[in-house]
């Protein structure tokens, strides 16, 4: 098949493309590299700033490449916000892609209308980016995001695309259950793909000092939960400086980020998640123990009955402190959790197996 993947979140499309190419398909990835992260792509659509000058340059570049985005068997967009434009302004491009290609699919790979709606209007989650229990997480970012996702351009774009596309693929349990009540007939769940051939994997031994690693996206500090996690992990380090050390990484390109992650023993990631992210899976594939999204719903969805490699955390600073302190004081647990993490990724996230699942779903819809 001839496949076009547009947009990038956390290297999912490039990794999927690697798997599809190994299976013999022709693939083109068009993205901005996920901004400063700098992920690989075949056609670059990087927009440096939100200024009017850069907006004009971006639109001119986009219009120039449009003729190259025709004639594909499958087009997949990463999210309703698949371009560096307001989602509603991307709709004419979406309609162009529908007209000039055979099939088009939507990735439920991030926050959009249906995820925000599930967070705010249902009790499907115990906690989420937007609420803990029935309490709204009232931050400037969340107020803006809820307004945009429930009533703004993101709401419009998500509904138009979800209703008219050929199918929807969710990469996390959270997104799958958000879409399920609305689009069960054209929805599937496919786990995130990881390419082990690009990864140096090493099961951790018991360290002299536990290297606690936290990556921070400064513009998404409160969304990812690092606004809570960072002070907590600093407290643990201050209380036990002889037993652990702390690596803090802020807005670092992917290649450099991986190099520092290679030396970590424990990674903190995604406080509000139920399912491990690409970042968590990359860490586990390397042998790093992950404190992040590992709720029972995640294991049930993939029918995993044995492995429990993820140290699950919830949005409680006190609980998080206890979990991290327990790991630091009982570092003999690290080798077993590390080994389980490597096996977990191999078992459920192999990029070739998952690329074939994508192909099967695209062909059946």
Structure characterization notes:
This protein has two domains: 2-193 and 351-364, 3-Layer(aba) Sandwich (Rossmann fold); 196-348, Rossmann fold. It contains 15 helices and 14 strands. It has helices at 12-22, 52-65, 87-100, 113-121, 140-151, 153-164, 173-183, 221-224, 226-239, 254-261, 278-286, 296-301, 317-329, 334-348, 351-364, and strands at residues 2-6, 26-31, 43-44, 74-77, 103-108, 131-132, 135-136, 167-170, 187-189, 210-216, 244-250, 266-268, 289-292, 311-312. The strands form three sheets. A seven-stranded parallel β-sheet has the order 3-2-1-4-5-8-9, sandwiched between helices. The model has no long low-confidence stretch (mean pLDDT 96).
Number of domains: 2
Q: Find the CATH topology of the largest domain.
A: Rossmann fold
Total of DSSP H or I helical runs spanning 4+ residues: 15
Under CATH, the homologous superfamily of the largest domain reads Glycogen Phosphorylase B
Strand content: 15-25%
Query: What sequence of helices (H) and strands (E) makes up the elements?
Result: EHEEHEHEHEEHHEHEEHHEHEHEHEHHH
Q: Nearest-angstrom radius of gyration?
A: 20 Å
Question: What class would the helix/strand composition place it in?
Answer: alpha/beta
Shape: globular
Which strand order does the major sheet show? 3-2-1-4-5-8-9
Describe the oligomeric state of these chains in a short phrase.
single chain
State the total count of DSSP E strands.
Answer: 14
Profile the largest sheet.
7 strands, parallel
Distance between the termini: 14 Å
The level 1 CATH classification of the largest domain is Alpha Beta
Instruction: Supply the CATH architecture of the largest domain.
Output: 3-Layer(aba) Sandwich
- Uncertain runs are none
Question: Helix content range of the residues, please?
Answer: 40-55%
- Average pLDDT, rounded to a whole number, is 96
